[in-house]
Amino acid sequence: MTKLYLKNTLRFFTLIAVQLLVFNNLGLFGYINPMVYPLFILLLPFEISGIVVLFLGFTLGLTLDLFTGSVGLHAAATTFLAFMRPVSLRIIASPREFEAGIEPGINDLGYRWFISNTLFLILMHHFFYFTLEAFNFSEVGSILLRTVLTSLVSVTLIVLLNLLFKPSLKRK
Amino acid sequence: MKNLIQFLIKHAFIFVFLLLEVISILLIVANNSFQRTAFISASNGFTSGILEASSNVTDYIGLKEKNLQLANENALLRSKLKESFLQGPDSFVTKIDTSLRQFYIYTQAFVITNSVQRRNNYLILNKGRRHGIEPEMGVIASNGVVGIVNEVSEEFCSVISVLHKKSAIDAKISSNGYTGTISWPGGLYTLGNLDNIPSHAELKVGDTLLTSGNSAIFPPNIPIGIIQKFELKKGSSFFSVRFRFLLDFNRLDHVYIIKNMKQEELLKLMGGFEND
């Protein structure tokens, strides 16, 4: 149990650092700023209660907000992601039962499930984020375009990051 | 009462979600109207410390190129010194010109954080109240306008970038002097809009946009961008002009903050007509 806490705490800070120091400086085509930190929420174990996930999402977003100066924006989007997580777990068919101890990553549930789950949740997260950022429905075309393009890059990077974490998970 | 509590417990997930969203949105709104929270949080010791350390490393990587750029700029400025000019044959009488008084002064600053991808972009610079920085000062880089100082703390200041929903800077077209306002519609950080150019103005692609000097913030004739295309929408008496920024906002690190010595006096006069 302690190991689980430790692993998730470490992942929380690693993802924030990676997001801030690497991906926020990436700026592909000056337009796409991929967001990979939601991987923290995606990989939380199933046995954690939904309310705790909501608070964790809010904390994660707010921590990032403190560094980027966009107070509330990441917090709102990540809380929304945490809210949608149970919905996604219900509608996307899983190859295995969600039993205690399995982690919702590629390792335990396979590529197909992980990619569809990530794509769904990241689209929700990015759409919410860009809508709040623009705060203006007349920019809906630009919001949708950014949501789709950024989501594709984010999901690709999240899958790669999950593969990167994989060896350490196997040793468990 | 009991029923209410049961109801709340039953739907706790949704209520907690709504509560957290309301908190987030209140934070965003408070931040939009005052831009205060963003600044306080981004420039307080800890976070700025980390960001400054990261910026120190990245600065070092681009050092060679930056040195070259600064050296070029120094050369340009040197060539404008009085000593660089020959005196004409007719200046028998030398006089000390007391009619010139300092109007703008510049101070140099480093960019600690900057962004171009968001709809509303800000910068944090490493100069603050201790260095005499005040809100509403202009910020430029060696080849273009960067933004306007927004909030100032002891050691740092935040700048509303030109790439911001609320940014509106007066500009003029170099060839004919018509003035308009530049804004940024979002999207690509290399392109901006110029509004309020009347339909009878003669425009051509490739004309340079300069600051007009109409505001009390920027001195005149600082380059902004180059006109890329323009069109006159049916029924409109103003052109919609699209231009390319001369400055690469994604590669800023040395900037200059401009203090207008007479800003207070000018703003007081300008405030005068707004009250009418």
Features:
heterodimer; A: about 170 residues; mainly alpha; about 70% helix; about 0% strand; B: about 280 residues; Thrombin, subunit H; 6-stranded antiparallel beta barrel; globular
Distance between the termini of chain B: 57 Å
Query: H/E element string of chain A?
Result: HHHHHH
State the largest interface.
Answer: A-B, 39 and 41 residues
Which parts of chain B are unreliable, with pLDDT below 50 for 5 consecutive residues or more? 89-94
Query: In the residues of chain A, how many domains can be counted?
Result: 1
Helix % of chain A is over 70%
**Main sheet characteristics of chain A:** none
End-to-end distance of chain A: 12 Å
* Global structural class of chain A: mainly alpha
Shape of chain B: globular
> CATH topology of the domain at 169-249 in chain B, which one?
Thrombin, subunit H
CATH superfamily of the domain at 169-249 in chain B: Rod shape-determining protein MreC, domain 2
Q: What is the level 1 CATH name of the domain at 169-249 in chain B?
A: Mainly Beta
SSE-based structural type of chain B? alpha+beta
User: What's the total number of strands of chain A?
Assistant: 0
Mean pLDDT of chain B: 80
CATH architecture of the domain at 169-249 in chain B: Beta Barrel
Approximately what portion of the residues of chain B adopt beta-strand conformation?
25-35%
Describe it.
The complex is a heterodimer of chains A (172) and B (276). By secondary structure, chain A is an all-alpha fold. Chain A has one domain. Chain A has 6 helices and no strands. The two termini of chain A are 12 Å apart. The model of chain A has no long low-confidence stretch (mean pLDDT 83). In chain B, the strands form 2 sheets. A 6-stranded antiparallel beta barrel of chain B has the order 1-2-5-4-3-12. A 6-stranded antiparallel β-barrel of chain B has the order 6-7-8-11-10-9. Chain B starts with a helix and ends with a helix. In chain B, 33% of the residues are buried. About 2% of the residues of chain B have low confidence. Chains A and B meet through α3, α4 and α5 of A and α2, α3 and α4 of B.
